Amino acid sequence: MNRVYLDYNATTPVDPQVLDAMLPYFSGDFANASSIHTPGQRARAAVETAREQVAALIGARPQEIVFTSGGTESDNHAIFGVINSLVAQPILTVHSSSPTPQHVITTTIEHEAVLNACQAAEKQGVSVTYLPVNREGRVDPESVRQAIRPETILITMMYANNELGTVQPLEEIGLIAKEHKIYFHTDAVQSVGKIPIDINTLNVDLLSLSGHKLYAPKGVGALYVRSGTRLRQLLYGGHHQRGFRPGTENVAGVVGLGKAAEIARNSFSSDAHRISALRDQLECGLLERVPQIRVNGSRAPRTPNTTNIQFAGIDGEALVIALDLKGLACSVGAACSSGAVEPSHVLTAIGLSQEEAKSSLRFSLGRKTTDSEIDFALEVIQSTVAKLRALSPTYRKGVAAQ
């Protein structure tokens, strides 16, 4: 059976060049990067090269890059690192409310790594404003300005949404944050390597990224921390990474992330052009072949690889399973939410009903996606949707009522 993978937003395959770069650090150059002997210093040099490569991808300085285990840790470190830096005791280690009022601004469509962190902060006395988005999944910068209070300490907002691909107006929001001297964090996990990123143009103080969304391995990521940002560590141990993140570095993973960043920097313009053409081919083909569908968030700027499509009268999970049986992998939303019975919080936030949200699928393309795979997807989706609709009394009733 042919198998086509259109779920690159969930995870990407490790690039062969990335794997080649990593392999020596599992055996021959296995030393601890904190050791002062020659093998250790070779490992240290590899880590620092990777730091330079990641920094170059986003326009940062190497010393502003902190390696982590991935996007979730980076998001949590950014949020609680800022909150904890402004209280007498770390908020994660006490049960009483914060001694001074604190306020954080975020949105209703953030990844759970941000939303759940904000909800945990609320339980410790931090006030959080969850800004709404429009039908296209975009935040109005003016709503950010209006939400600011004297006690606002942090604005945290994703750059590109993992389900819609919608890109937020970070430059405008960054200027507002800078004007009010408020720390600004962005979860850029779904945008790094897909669209150009310059931390100075965006005016962000903190930026999260994850290796496995970037053709690097799972279990490694990074947090950009602008020099001068007050950030309290979350973990306690040795003095690794200038005290920001203790623990022996995952040298092989870090090397892989660095190589992936270098590849992305050199190729993302050509990749973006080719992948966006394939994404448009998929969207246009489905709109021509399949009745009663719509593309969610299509009028907003989007990452070049993502489309979210609503299929009226069909249960999304049933469609994902049926497509998988025919060799096509896609998703109903974020991989972190798979198995959830509730509809996507992102899709309901843009105004979709629960039924509409549950009938929407995400297709995310990648570096290995080909024209023939898109042709295969079009045929399989068309036939599978027709079959499921023929079995759906809800869909037949809706058609008859029109």
Secondary-structure blueprint of this entry?
Layout: E1 4-5, H1 16-22, H2 38-58, E2 65-68, H3 71-85, E3 103-107, H4 112-123, E4 127-131, H5 141-147, E5 152-156, H6 170-179, E6 183-187, H7 199-202, E7 206-210, E8 221-225, H8 251-289, E9 293-296, E10 306-311, H9 316-325, E11 328-329, H10 345-349, H11 354-358, E12 360-364, H12 371-390, H13 393-401
Parallel strand pairs: 1-11, 3-4, 3-5, 5-6, 6-7
Antiparallel strand pairs: 2-8, 7-8, 9-10, 10-12
Describe this structure in words.
There is one protein chain. The protein is an alpha/beta fold. The chain has two domains: 4-10 and 268-395, Aspartate Aminotransferase, domain 1 (Alpha-Beta Complex); 16-264, 3-Layer(aba) Sandwich (Aspartate Aminotransferase, domain 2). The chain contains 13 helices and twelve strands. The chain has a seven-stranded mixed β-sheet, sandwiched between helices. A three-stranded antiparallel β-sheet has the order 9-10-12. Helix 5 packs parallel to helix 6 (170-179) and helix 8 crosses helix 12 (371-390). Residues 93-98 have low confidence and may be disordered.
Shape: globular
The name of the CATH superfamily of the largest domain reads Type I PLP-dependent aspartate aminotransferase-like (Major domain)
Radius of gyration: 22 Å
Strand order of the largest sheet: 2-8-7-6-5-3-4
Indicate the structural class. alpha/beta
Number of distinct helices: 13
Number of domains: 2
